[in-house]
């Protein structure tokens, strides 16, 4: 059967159907989600940066006091521990809740794309406390702005500085570097060029990496958040990609001007648009789609809504579904939505439930949240996800989730809610022939039709 | 065995499962693999610092380059190179001639120093990164050349779908913790809906048949359970899966298969990207590697004598310590070999020295040999592949040069 616009947009550019959502009627309806306010963060978000740091600091201080043998703080520590763990659980819950919302699918898919593009694997105490803020304040406010804005915000956020060792990089000739006898760490500089902007095929050299590492010195983070430490910055100007930046005194704005330049580089345009096309449309997208998006990226200096629009305007974005498979997060969110589970169903569950219902299953399916394989994020290709063990994880989760949420559903109706015209005769036959409801619902959710997009 | 017989068997086996399951063929299958040797490849992800693992303490320049990293203990190997103390429990293997190293090797990958491209090239076994690089891995191509090899001949262990085994030759991958709780009828229906989608059909089949065959997941549990119990089950299996994700768990599983028909096993150990405080950072990965090698040694029993383990990494790290007590991405590195089939207690390779002029781009250890050459000679000596087959199919473009003779 002919695949409708509503079905294609729900599967390819959203988190699938929910029984309570109105169908998207045209491309403008999708784009409108990005023009409006961030409804997800408005409803589901954690504390701001300073509050997070305060919670972490209070916990740490009480722990130190306790370690020194002062038992009197025990009840306080217990409370502080709960607060800290609660924040972490909430960050996970909010991620799911936002994605499960009706009417926000495209925006949420875009937000997830950027979270993956600018992967941060939280490291250490501060890293974990800040992770949710990185997504909510560091990334999401900029996903409908220019790529340059997003890049500056992501790369200079404390989470990123901690994750890619920038806070441990010192200008070898800077006052602090000389005193501590410490020097450069290339980690962030390399990933900015290789992963965040130009891509590994880009026209940069080892010397660019080195010079950029020098330029980035000074980016720092303290208990109050991001800051610029002049005394860590390497003196003198740096030449990256043939252009000279900085000079004395070193300023954060020098780094920003480099980031804004590289954000407009043709290699960056190609790299970013290719990644978007691969994430949304196909593991092997048509060259004409990438060319079209790249053209728009370059004409608009990386205006992201224009680039998304270029993707949606291209005919290959509306080819027949099935070229990609859902990653475990997308699979779980779209399953919940199809089952009629709403974001409100996840309000205030005890932390143990978050662990069991959200964190462990993702681990089981091969996508442990907060633990991507590296700064390059999760793999895209279908073969990476539909493995024997990954599929076993999905099946097992389907069985337990439909047991929990699907007792009232008739599998023969559910197949219609979840798949509409995508359900083939074989699947309908199999679902109708299942010996129990739970298995029938599981067959729908575990089917290639539901897992492909 | 004469060639016509071998050819016949190869054709029979090409029929797949049904032929392999026939009692007539099964015992011959075993013999028809021309070799009883085993190859285990451990991919060390993140760029292992070969200079810290097998450290050239004999060169006075070394401690000048790495004042912080040469402060702690090393175990002397041959008077010039010394073993990182975190791998100290491997000394008995070294003394028994069952542990060795190759220094100053690398893949043909140069200059961009990207983990991901470097690992792709290492696993693909190709000289150049192009669009085909993720199509097939070198172990898969090697298998296709071995008469009598079948699906169970090679295993990738763990959750990863490793490129090194990917390709046209059917291989099996398995993580010990996977299990499926569908009723038998539900499984049949599942087979039916997967039938027309090869990706799902293959993964689904393997998931279910292996769950039954291997009895690795002996978790009881019934889907009639209430949600809480179901999840508690999952929690339990998750815990066992976390344990199994440890390298020793993977090695145990690999050893079980290697004691039977499996001739190749591969898995990976991450955590080698030590930009920061390497003295501490390298500890975990080293301990994992050590545990994996010792587990293989302990569990393989007599099969250990027929086993060659190669530990490969995408590239080495900078000769000099960086500004934060770590090292950055480099070029030339080391390869670790272990097993009763190797002639160990030796550091192989053509050591280029550490003078500034001898370094690659004045920063990295100069690679003096293609590490594919060593892997190629392992394929030659263990499985009888010809030099021409290796140079054209397994590692296209490699120059095999002379046999370094590291196998017994």
TrEMBL record, chain A:
Superkingdom of source: Bacteria
Originating species: Neptunicoccus cionae
Full protein name: DUF1800 domain-containing protein
From TrEMBL, chain B:
Domain of life: Bacteria
PANTHER family xrefs: BLL7424 PROTEIN, DUF1501 DOMAIN-CONTAINING PROTEIN
Protein name per UniProt: Twin-arginine translocation pathway signal
């Amino acid at each position: 059967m002919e695949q409708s616009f509503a079905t294609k947009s729900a599967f390819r550019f959203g988190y699938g159907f929910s029984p309570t959502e109105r169908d998207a009627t045209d491309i403008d309806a999708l784009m409108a989600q990005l023009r409006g306010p961030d409804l997800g963060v408005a409803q589901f978000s954690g504390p701001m940066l300073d509050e997070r740091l305060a919670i972490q600091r209070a916990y740490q201080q009480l722990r130190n006091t306790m370690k020194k043998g002062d038992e009197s703080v025990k009840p306080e520590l217990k409370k502080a521990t709960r607060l800290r763990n609660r924040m972490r659980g909430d960050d996970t819950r909010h991620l799911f809740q936002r994605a499960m919302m009706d009417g926000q699918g495209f925006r949420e898919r875009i937000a997830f794309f950027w979270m993956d593009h600018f992967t941060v694997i939280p490291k250490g105490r501060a890293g974990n406390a800040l992770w949710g803020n990185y997504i909510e304040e560091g990334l999401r406010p900029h996903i409908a702005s220019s790529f340059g804005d997003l890049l500056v915000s992501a790369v200079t956020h404390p989470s990123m500085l901690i994750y890619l060792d920038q806070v441990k990089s010192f200008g070898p000739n800077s006052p602090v570097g000389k005193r501590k006898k410490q020097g450069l760490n290339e980690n962030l500089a390399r990933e900015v060029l290789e992963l965040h902007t130009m891509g590994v095929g880009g026209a940069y050299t080892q010397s660019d990496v080195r010079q950029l590492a020098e330029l980035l010195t000074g980016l720092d983070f303290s208990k109050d958040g991001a800051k610029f430490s002049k005394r860590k910055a390497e003196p003198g100007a740096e030449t990256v990609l043939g252009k000279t930046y900085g000079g004395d005194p070193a300023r954060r704005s020098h780094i920003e001007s480099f980031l804004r330049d590289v954000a407009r580089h043709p290699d960056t345009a190609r790299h970013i648009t290719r990644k978007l096309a691969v994430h949304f449309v196909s593991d092997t997208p048509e060259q004409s789609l990438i060319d079209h998006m790249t053209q728009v990226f370059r004409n608009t200096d990386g205006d992201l809504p224009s680039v998304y629009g270029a993707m949606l305007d291209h005919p290959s974005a509306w080819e027949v579904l099935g070229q990609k498979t859902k990653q475990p997060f997308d699979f779980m969110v779209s399953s919940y939505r199809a089952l009629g589970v709403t974001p409100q169903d996840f309000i205030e569950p005890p932390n143990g439930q978050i662990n069991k219902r959200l964190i462990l299953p993702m681990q089981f399916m091969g996508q442990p949240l907060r633990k991507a394989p590296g700064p390059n994020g999760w793999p895209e290709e279908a073969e990476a996800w539909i493995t024997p063990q990954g599929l076993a994880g999905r099946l097992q989760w389907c069985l337990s989730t439909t047991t929990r949420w699907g007792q009232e559903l008739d599998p023969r109706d559910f197949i219609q809610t979840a798949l509409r015209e995508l359900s083939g005769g074989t699947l309908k036959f199999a679902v109708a022939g299942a010996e129990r409801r739970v298995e029938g619902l599981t067959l729908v959710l575990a089917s290639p039709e539901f897992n492909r997009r | 065995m004469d060639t016509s017989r071998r050819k016949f068997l190869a054709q029979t086996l090409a029929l797949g499962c049904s032929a392999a399951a026939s009692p007539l063929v099964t015992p011959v299958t075993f013999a028809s693999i021309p070799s009883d040797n085993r190859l285990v490849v451990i991919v060390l992800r993140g760029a292992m610092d070969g200079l810290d693992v097998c450290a050239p303490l004999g060169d006075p320049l070394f401690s000048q380059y790495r004042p912080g990293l040469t402060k702690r203990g090393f175990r002397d190997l041959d008077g010039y190179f010394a073993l990182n103390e975190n791998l100290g429990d491997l000394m008995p293997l070294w003394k028994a001639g069952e542990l060795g190293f190759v220094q100053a090797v690398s893949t043909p990958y140069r200059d961009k120093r990207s983990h991901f491209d470097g690992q792709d090239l290492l696993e693909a076994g190709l000289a150049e990164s192009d669009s085909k690089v993720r199509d097939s891995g070198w172990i898969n191509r090697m298998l296709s050349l071995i008469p009598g090899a079948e699906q169970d001949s090679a295993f990738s262990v763990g959750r990863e779908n490793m490129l090194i085994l990917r390709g046209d030759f059917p291989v099996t991958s398995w993580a010990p913790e996977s299990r499926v709780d569908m009723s038998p009828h539900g499984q049949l229906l599942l087979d039916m809906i997967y039938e027309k989608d090869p990706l799902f059909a293959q993964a689904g089949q393997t998931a279910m048949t292996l769950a039954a065959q291997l009895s690795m997941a002996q978790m009881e549990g019934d889907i009639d359970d209430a949600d809480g119990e179901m999840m508690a089950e999952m929690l339990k299996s998750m815990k066992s899966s976390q344990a199994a994700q440890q390298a020793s768990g993977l090695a145990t599983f690999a050893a079980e298969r290697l004691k039977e028909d499996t001739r190749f096993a591969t898995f990976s150990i991450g955590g080698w990207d030590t930009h920061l405080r390497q003295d501490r950072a390298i500890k975990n990965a080293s301990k994992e590697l050590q545990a994996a090698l010792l587990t293989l040694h302990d569990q393989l029993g007599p099969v250990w004598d027929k086993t060659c383990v190669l530990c490969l990494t995408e590239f080495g790290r900078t000769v000099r310590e960086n500004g934060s007590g770590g090292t950055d991405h480099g070029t030339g590195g080391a390869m670790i070999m272990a097993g009763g089939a190797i002639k160990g207690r030796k550091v192989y390779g053509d050591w280029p020295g550490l003078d500034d002029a001898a370094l690659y781009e004045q920063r990295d250890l100069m690679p003096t040999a293609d590490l594919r050459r060593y892997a190629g000679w392992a394929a030659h000596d263990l499985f009888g592949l010809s030099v021409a087959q290796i140079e054209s199919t397994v590692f296209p473009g490699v120059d095999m040069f002379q046999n370094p003779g590291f196998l017994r």
